Amino acid sequence: MRRYFSRDVAGKLGYFVNRRIFKLQNEYTKRDGGTPESRAALARLRRDLDGGAPAWMTVGSDLFEGWGRSLPSGEEDPAAVRAARAAMELYACHQQSRRHGVAQDAKDADKIRMTFGRACRLIDPDMEHAKGVRRRLSAAEAAPDFNGVVRSVRALIMLMRSAGDGTITLDYRSLAQDLYQIQFPEACSEVFQRWSMDYYSGTGATTQRHDA
């Protein structure tokens, strides 16, 4: 079992999650209303976050298909599995009933990378009225365990869904890496520092990531 944060694993995990999410997003946002398979996959992924017990032999194909040798096994590094699972479940909540893709498109290379902190700032750019956003960010930092962090992140993603015209996108590759890193005591503070800087400096700020 891995006891220390690995930047190499974080980078590979982010790319794996991104591939899985974009495969699903491309199917779900097709002009004909998306494929039945993609709608069913999103429903399965949401079920766990909604408190239902997942049927692992069914949801496993959505989560783990393509989990190659470059990524650790669940026994070697359970934090990687938890991060991938949480990121994809959060994406499923964010994408629900949206006909546009909510995961930031990798083709938008000319745009600012929409990290979690930057996306949270877009919920309500008026800092005078964004106390609820900051309260939830603080709750994530103060959470006693990983599940508590995920609950706070989900609350913020639900605010992204309802903010403005509902078009806030999120870089899920970045979020998956953060959710992995946040599980290691020696490395989690760096994540909250990054979220804070990206949030308070606004969407035009740039911060160096571990996979840059």
From TrEMBL:
InterPro entries found in the cross-reference section: CRISPR-assoc_prot_Cse2, Cse2_sf
Stored Pfam families: CRISPR_Cse2
Domain of life: Bacteria
Record protein name field: Type I-E CRISPR-associated protein Cse2/CasB
Annotated source species: Bifidobacterium parmae
Phylogenetic classification of the source organism: Bacteria, Bacillati, Actinomycetota, Actinomycetes, Bifidobacteriales
